[in-house]
Structure to design on (222 residues):
């Protein structure tokens, strides 16, 4: 594809894999591990607060917030560009180009909430609702056999959508139910991230082969 209409799907998928595995780490730190405050001065202090039974890791969340906000800005910007230019073949723009800026928007919401130390339970409801289009796209990929790996691509969407759908359960403060759901959310995020890496790496090798002999209209220095 000449000009600015470049297929960025491979780097998007690998970025998605990085983000989902990082999100699994955030779930572990906030809703599975629930660390205590270190006050003995013998090691680096991990500051936490307790909000109605839900531990919030302030230092960890500030660092994760920087990551989520940065990736969110990138995903939103490149996603809006792709949604306007449609660089992918036909229906793949609906599945990926139109979904990518929504992903960026969700990351920005999560990142900002973590940065200001907001109670993430209140954000879990819109995140759960955002799972609906994710699951719909996953089912659509499987039903129509889209992409070269429909089973993996559809599975990636469905696992991520399911993790988002049950995420409010990870924030339940009573007993160990929240922790068990948190572990399940972690597993779903990691599996979805692995699939994103697998598809993205395969796409990267395919794209470099396709573009191996392409040169821009102004030529190259080689």
């Amino acid at each position: 594809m000449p000009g600015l209409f470049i297929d960025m799907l491979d780097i998007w998928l690998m970025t998605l894999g990085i983000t989902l595995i990082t999100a699994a780490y955030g779930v572990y730190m906030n809703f599975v591990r629930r660390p205590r405050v270190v006050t003995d001065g013998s090691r680096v202090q991990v500051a936490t607060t307790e909000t109605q039974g839900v531990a919030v890791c302030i230092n960890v969340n500030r660092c994760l917030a920087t990551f989520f906000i940065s990736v969110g800005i990138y995903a939103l910007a490149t996603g809006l560009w792709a949604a306007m230019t449609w660089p992918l073949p036909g229906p793949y723009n609906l599945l990926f180009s139109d979904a990518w800026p929504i992903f960026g928007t969700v990351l920005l919401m999560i990142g900002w909430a973590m940065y200001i130390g907001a109670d993430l339970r209140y954000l879990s409801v819109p995140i759960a609702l955002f799972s609906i289009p994710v699951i719909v796209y996953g089912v659509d990929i499987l039903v129509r056999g889209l992409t070269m790996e429909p089973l993996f691509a559809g599975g990636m969407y469905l696992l991520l959508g399911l993790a988002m759908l049950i995420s409010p359960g990870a924030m339940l403060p009573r007993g160990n139910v929240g922790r068990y759901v948190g572990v399940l959310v972690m597993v779903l995020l990691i599996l979805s991230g692995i699939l994103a890496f697998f598809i993205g790496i395969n796409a990267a090798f395919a794209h470099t082969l396709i573009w191996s002999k392409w040169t821009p209209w102004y030529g190259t220095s080689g």
About this structure: The chain has one domain: 9-210. The domain at 9-210 is CATH 1.25.40 (Serine Threonine Protein Phosphatase 5, Tetratricopeptide repeat).
